[in-house]
Structure formats: structure tokens, C-alpha cells
Design goal:
The protein is an alpha/beta fold. It has 3 domains: 87 residues; 102 residues, Immunoglobulin-like, CATH 2.60.40; 94 residues, 2-Layer Sandwich (Alpha-Beta Plaits), CATH 3.30.70. It is 33% helix and 28% strand. The strands form 3 sheets. Strands 1, 2, 5, 9 and 10 form a 5-stranded mixed sheet that branches. Strands 3, 4, 6, 7 and 8 form a 5-stranded antiparallel sheet that branches. α1 runs antiparallel to α2 and α2 packs across α3. The longest helix has 30 residues.
Length: 333
């Protein structure tokens, strides 16, 4: 190989190394920063940085630069400008379409009864939403969405925080987001009779480096986010009460509770003298139990009912509520 060709090859390799350099630094930062999250590397990320390496190698070749040092800096320059342009483009898109263009590339565990919200016939005043964040996600943004899909309000909630927020009159649903993860819309109650409750869980956090990360130099922060309403379990004293229990179950589901089923506990457990709405966390779940109690009284006209605090079991999650029917249910129809 001639000395001239050798210098040319050295400059091309230096440019290739220069093209890779900024992205190797980004990779190191992603691996070292926020060590609580594991880093996921996709083949697309390596393809992306290889493209930048080739662009860097191309720069000293077309400019006929034979000095390896200068070739290295030429290699850095072009990919860096492309990366900055990609970041600037992403920032502009995010600012203009923040409410509607979030891309979710995470596995979302949908609530069994969560569904797309339907537009309310008219604004509902004086509603409130109690939000609790559990799991490993440090915080989350809760966006209140109207029937047209527009954000009308946002709230931030911290890990293990229990926060009550007023619901805008036109809001029909919420979306929860953090980093690059966003949930589907979760429907809001259309009544102001009680404070609606949702448990937000964020887990399995990871930093993902894909082909877009090669262009932006940023890892995607992804979590599995789940929005769950209070779970209400119905326990009846005999089969003659099943029809009433089914009606209560349907009403609860319609108003964004999760009501898995109705169980006949006759002969299996102690039957209370009055209808009991039992809760397991005091005071966190007391309001939820009182909301269910208000439904029994106001919607189903049950007069012999009360709330009751019972000790929490190892499998009981936040928002766990039980309705225990007595043998004789008194109704003021």
C-alpha cells in the first residue's frame, strides 16, 4: 500500500471513529445514569450508530483530508449536526401535539373494565378524582381529556402519594404518562355524588435504546403503566339476593369501579346483621367505602348498611372494598 493510500485509509478510519464518538458517549451515559433502570439495547440502535460512523468516514473522504486528527473532528461534525436537527424536530413536534402524539412502545396492562370514554351529554360540575401512585415509577402526569380529545388540565403525582384533584366539568377521561409511556384513556365518572378513585401503578421501568435513540442521542424511558379503579367484591347471604347484587355490580362497573363478581358465602363465612361495606386500609380506603355506601343508600335505597374497617390481608391491594349482604336487607323503595 502506498503512503498516500495508507494516509487516506487512516483518515477514513479516524472519520468513522469520529462519527461513532458522540453516540458511544451517549451509550455510556445511558448505561451509567439512573442505574435503577435496566438498559435495553436493540439491533436498530447499533444500525443507527453504524450509519453515523459511515457518514463520519465519508466526510474526510469527500474533503480530501489526510490528517487523522482533523478527519476525526470532521467525522464528529456531520453526525452531530444531524443529531441536533433530529432533537430539534422532536422538540417542535412534542410542543405542538403534546396531547395527541405520544408514542407508546411499552406493554400496558389494561384494567379489566377500562374502556374508551364516551362523550358526556353535558358538563358535570363539582367532581373530584382521588389518585394514588404505586410501583416503582417516581412520578406521573395525569392529563384530563375532554370528549374532543383535548387536554383541559394536567396534574403531577409522586410515588406513594394519594392526591385528590378537582375534575374539569368537560373532562370525560384521563391519560397517565411518564417518560415515553402513556396509557389509553380511562373513563371518568359522570356523577358528582362521590369522589372517584384510581390506582396508578408503574413498574418494569427500563431505558430503551433503539434506532431513534441513535438520532436523538436519548434513551426512551419506558414503564408498564396500569390504571385501576377500586375493586368491589360482592358477598351475598343466599341466592335470592343475587339479582340485587347483579344490579349493584352493573351500576358499579358503569361508574368506573371494578366489580369482578358475586359470591354466595352462605355456610362459608359469618353473615353480618347489617349490610357492611368493608375496607382494609384506614384512612386511605375509607372514602372509597363511603362512596360505595352512598351508592347503596341513594341508588338502591338500602337502609340497614354501614361501613366497617377490617384488617388487611396479605393479598389485598389498595382500593380493595367488599360488600357483605346481611340475611335481611331493608330497602326504602
Amino acid at each position: 500500500m502506498s503512503p498516500q493510500a495508507k494516509k487516506r485509509l487512516q483518515s477514513i478510519l479516524a472519520g468513522f471513529g469520529g462519527g461513532l464518538a458522540p453516540f458511544l458517549v451517549n451509550l455510556a451515559q445511558a448505561l451509567v445514569g439512573n442505574t435503577q433502570l435496566k438498559t435495553s439495547l436493540s439491533i436498530g440502535y447499533f444500525i443507527g450508530i453504524l450509519i453515523f460512523g459511515l457518514i463520519g468516514a465519508f466526510m474526510p473522504l469527500i474533503l480530501r483530508e489526510l490528517n487523522p486528527g482533523k478527519a476525526f473532528f470532521l467525522g464528529i461534525s456531520a453526525p452531530a449536526m444531524i443529531s441536533l436537527a433530529a432533537k430539534d424536530s422532536n422538540a417542535r413536534v412534542s410542543a405542538v401535539t403534546q396531547a395527541t402524539t405520544f408514542r407508546s412502545s411499552f406493554a400496558i396492562i389494561a384494567s379489566a373494565y377500562a374502556q374508551e370514554a364516551t362523550p358526556a351529554s353535558q358538563p358535570v360540575e363539582e367532581r373530584s378524582l382521588e389518585i394514588e401512585l404505586d410501583g416503582t415509577m417516581p412520578e406521573a402526569t395525569v392529563a384530563f381529556i375532554d370528549a374532543a380529545g383535548h387536554e383541559v388540565k394536567t396534574d403531577t403525582i409522586k410515588l406513594h402519594e394519594n392526591k385528590r384533584s378537582s375534575v374539569p366539568p368537560t373532562a370525560t377521561a384521563i391519560q397517565v404518562r411518564y417518560g415515553d409511556s402513556v396509557t389509553k384513556r380511562y373513563p371518568l365518572s359522570t356523577t358528582a355524588d362521590y369522589a372517584q378513585y384510581v390506582l396508578v401503578t408503574g413498574a418494569a421501568g427500563q431505558k430503551k435504546l433503539d434506532i431513534s435513540s441513535a438520532f436523538t442521542g436519548q434513551a426512551k424511558i419506558l414503564y408498564d403503566i396500569n390504571v385501576i379503579g377500586p375493586r368491589v367484591y360482592l358477598q351475598i347471604a343466599d341466592e335470592s339476593q343475587r339479582d340485587l347484587a347483579k344490579k349493584i355490580q352493573a351500576f358499579l362497573i358503569e361508574h368506573s369501579f371494578v366489580a369482578p363478581g358475586v359470591e354466595n358465602v352462605s355456610g362459608k363465612a359469618y353473615i353480618p346483621d347489617t349490610v357492611e361495606v368493608r375496607y382494609r386500609r384506614n384512612p386511605e380506603d375509607k372514602d372509597k367505602a363511603e362512596a360505595v355506601l352512598a351508592i347503596l343508600k341513594n341508588q338502591f335505597h338500602i337502609t340497614n348498611c354501614r361501613t366497617s374497617y377490617t384488617e388487611r390481608g396479605p393479598r389485598d391491594r389498595p382500593g380493595h372494598i367488599e360488600i357483605w349482604f346481611s340475611k335481611n336487607i331493608k330497602r326504602n323503595d
